[in-house]
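anyone else get weird line breaks when pasting these?? whatever heres mine. first is seq + tokens for prot A
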Amino acid sequence: MGRRQCWCRVTVRGPDGAVLGGFTLEGPGDPDLAAVDDLARVALQAARLGGRITLREVSPAMRAMLDLAGFGVEMERQAEPAEESPVVVEREEEAHPDDPAG
């Protein structure tokens, strides 16, 4: 088994944006599609409750996996010393005519 690497830090937010909890997604080596699946499951559960997830400290390998999977997720930008607190950038999911209604 290899050394565990931090792939990203996940924050779960409620409908009002309040932080409900969080965790670090990590594992040996680089992330794979199973890691993206784990994030998707947490994001789906949060969305069902009216909330969302945000990511920070996303590793380059995890960012590549998220892009490969087309996973739209909010990522918190780390604040520079002269800046204010991190900004959450929202990404809208594209709707396609053939997608089943959610």
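and prot B, same format (seq, then tokens)
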Amino acid sequence: MAAKPINVNKKSGVPMGRTVHAVMLVSAVLGEGMDSGEKCVTPLTMPYFLWDCLLDGPKLQSSLRVQALIDHGSHVVLIDEALVDRLGLRRRQLHQTMEVSVALQGDSKTSFFLFEYVKLACSSLDSVWTSRVVHALMAPGLCTPLLLGGPFLSHNKIVIDHQTRTCIEKDDGYDLLHPPVPPPPCPTALLPLLYDYKHAVVSELNFVLPERHDIMDESCKPVDGLQILAAVKGQIKTLAHAEELKELDTSMKRKFADRFPVDILHIDDLPTDVMYCIQLKDANKIIQQRSYPCPRKY
């Protein structure tokens, strides 16, 4: 049988007089496009890592509560100048001026120069954890009172987990953003037991103390009563001695009148020809040393 001739369009190359079907194949890996797309959507923003901490300073009678911004993307620790004045921290000059640039729009940048820094340590609200001392650069008009950047996180060994939103110190496992809950108070079920213990202690004391009382009476000399004349004589000697000390104080101030001025001179008017000057390591440091080991939370 002879083949029927087919007319072909010379420009497009498509046979004329026949219908052409186009099929669109959808990948089975994606499934339905709408469902798969929703699972891959991420939030546009995330909350800041804000940490409520305590700061100390020479001008404060008690610790000041400050909300600090934890920013691991910052290569410095910054503190607002107003907060430095409120704390009364000692300002220190940088050996080299530091330039900080802020991108505002496009390629244009605004530069700021930082000249001073302070030494700073932060504590948790429960006073269980205290950071190491870090250097914080003073920045006037800072958007937050305190910005804890990379030096603070590295020096204190803090690891940030963005998924669980935790800032954990590696040595002790303390979470700055989620501090441990204090233990619950003593349950009421133990009150009867404590009541029995109290009565047992009182009964033991009532049994032991009379015997001790008799031993003390035998070893101690009897008291004849209050010696009124001796008490009056002792009080007269005390008053006379106080009057003698007062006269001696007056004579010493009169003899060395140039060393005891009526009003203390201003610091600019004090003599400079001193024999020796004791230079303190840190004149603004608050002495809080204890002679016994005790956790700070107590």
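btw re prot B: Residues 201 and 238 are 44 Å apart (CA to CA). The radius of gyration is 40 Å.
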